[in-house]
Design goal:
The protein has helices at 44-51, 74-79, 97-102, 106-109, 117-130, 147-160, 177-192, 204-210, 233-241, and strands at 6-15, 18-28, 33-37, 59-64, 67-68, 82-85, 165-169, 196-201, 213-218, 221-227. It is an alpha/beta fold. The strands form two sheets. It has a six-stranded mixed beta sheet with strand order 6-7-8-3-9-10, with helices on both faces. Strands 2-1-4-5 form a four-stranded antiparallel beta sheet, with helices on one face. A hairpin with a 2-residue loop joins strand 4 (59-64) and strand 5 (67-68). It is globular and about 50 Å long. The relative contact order is 0.18. Bound molecules: adenosine-5'-triphosphate. Adenosine-5'-triphosphate (ATP) is lined by residues 15, 18, 20, 38, 40-46.
């Protein structure tokens, strides 16, 4: 059975007397895209921050591979195989594509410290090609790539460093139709490579194009938790637009 890699049970988070999350349950499984939808203020960012190790939760339980966890830093989340790609991507725009691929603190502690530039470039190229991303010139500054390509580089980097769970924070929010398509295709590849993807979005169309599992947050609560076979795009859109009760 495909037991959840990350499991939230009845998780709450308050900031002083603001309850940003109330009794949220969520299961993230290998090889599935779990879409978390919700309007501004619904609690999506708070949810990400808990799983990514930026905030602790104030009630309930979070477990990773069956073990209860309270992360006290992003490093702990990363060390548990959870990588987060934020909207700003944390890429260095003036640095080459291949150097960006190795950017991040993994490089300072991992085996890659020993590699020379030519080897690193080759690895970046292989990884990107393997995932179907074609970027002709890896020496160009990453800032010259399209928004969609930059997203793909940031995701490929996370996968390369061994992420088992990938949190994607509104990866298509700033992109046009074509670029969104590029990124959505790539998210499917990550899923098919066995990764458990948490796809945060407020776009039901994008969610429905790729998602296996949909969770809609409203005012910090789970308003809907369902699987693809149980909902149509129209129903999902209606849920997002204000609910159908
Ligand atoms: P957005 O898409 O705008 O980021 P969101 O769904 O991610 O929205 P959150 O950012 O998680 O929502 O916010 C949920 C609630 O918690 C909101 O009412 C917000 O004002 C509140 N909140 C978030 N962060 C803090 C904080 N650090 N201190 C106090 N209140 C906060």
């Amino acid at each position: 059975p495909n037991s959840p890699i990350v499991l939230l049970e009845d998780v709450g988070k308050s900031y002083g007397n603001i309850n940003a999350l109330r009794g949220v349950s969520l299961a993230v499984r290998q090889g599935e895209i779990t879409c978390v939808l919700g309007d501004n203020g619904a609690g999506k960012s708070t949810l990400i921050k808990i799983i990514a190790g930026l905030h602790d939760y104030t009630s309930g339980r979070m477990s990773v591979n069956g073990e209860e966890r309270h992360f006290s830093s992003p490093r702990e989340s990363l060390d548990s195989g959870i990588a987060t790609v934020y909207q700003d991507l944390a890429l260095a725009p003036l640095m080459s594509v291949w150097r960006n691929f190795f950017l991040g603190n993994e490089i300072t502690r991992g085996p890659f410290r020993q590699l020379d530039a030519a080897k690193m470039k080759r690895i970046a190229e292989e990884e990107l090609t393997k995932m179907g991303i074609s970027i002709p010139d890896l020496e160009q500054p990453v800032g010259k790539l399209s928004g969609g390509q930059r997203q793909c580089v940031a995701i490929a980097r996370a996968i390369h460093f061994g992420a088992k769970v990938l949190i994607l924070d509104e990866p298509t929010a700033a992109l046009g139709v074509n670029q969104s398509g590029v990124v959505l295709k790539y998210i499917v590849k990550a899923r098919d490579a066995g990764i458990g993807v948490i796809f945060i979005t407020h776009n039901p169309h994008h969610a429905y194009l790729v998602g296996n599992h949909f969770v809609v947050l409203k005012l910090g609560r789970v308003a809907l938790d369902t699987h693809r076979s149980q909902i149509t795009l129209e129903q999902l859109t209606t849920e997002m637009a204000g609910g159908s009760e």
